[in-house]
Amino acid sequence: MITHQKESTTKKNFQTILISTLLVAVLDILAASVVFNLWFKMTPIQVFQFIASSVYGQEAFDGSISKILAGVVIHLITSFIIAAVYFYGYPKIRLLSKSPIASGCIYGFGFWVIMNLLIIPNTHIAPSPFNIGLALTSIAWHMILVGLPAAIITAKHYKKYDE
């Protein structure tokens, strides 16, 4: 009986993380596609190539389907990490449950900082000049379309299952 309950809880947890992952991934890539199109005239395919360039550098823009799919996979893995870290941090960090909206926005901002100041500079993505307008736009989308959905979905899960 206990094993069955644990399996059921694990399944519910995974389902919630998966839902959060997919929503975050879709909202993030939609925002990236719109913003990158407005700022750089990039197509959604080029956005995935840009993501793949973190691993492949300029080779990611060779037009191959494999590089585009690599961008999709990298994006989904990143979205999964975002969702899972928030989900498993939620019961351990009391502040997250106090205000999911505020904590989700802060989490989205924190994710933007980590990506832009720590991770991206250590990839094969070519450095670009800092643009305050683009940075503020990107911060806003990560707060509202990345951190917030992860927080709301997680909060609803824990409220429903009272873990």
Anisotropy-based shape: globular
Mean pLDDT: 95
How does the major sheet shape up? none
Structural class by helix and strand composition: mainly alpha
Q: Domains counted in the coordinates: how many?
A: 1
Distance between the termini: 18 Å
Return the string of H and E elements: HHHHHH
Helix content: over 70%
How many helices does DSSP assign? Answer: 6
- Beta-strand segment tally: 0
Radius of gyration: 17 Å
Strand fraction: under 5%
Query: Stretches where pLDDT falls below 50 for ≥5 residues?
Result: none
Descriptive overview:
There is one protein chain. This protein has 163 residues and is mainly α. It is 81% helix and 0% strand. It contains six helices and no strands. Helix 3 crosses helix 6 (132-161). The two termini are 18 Å apart. 29% of the residues are buried.
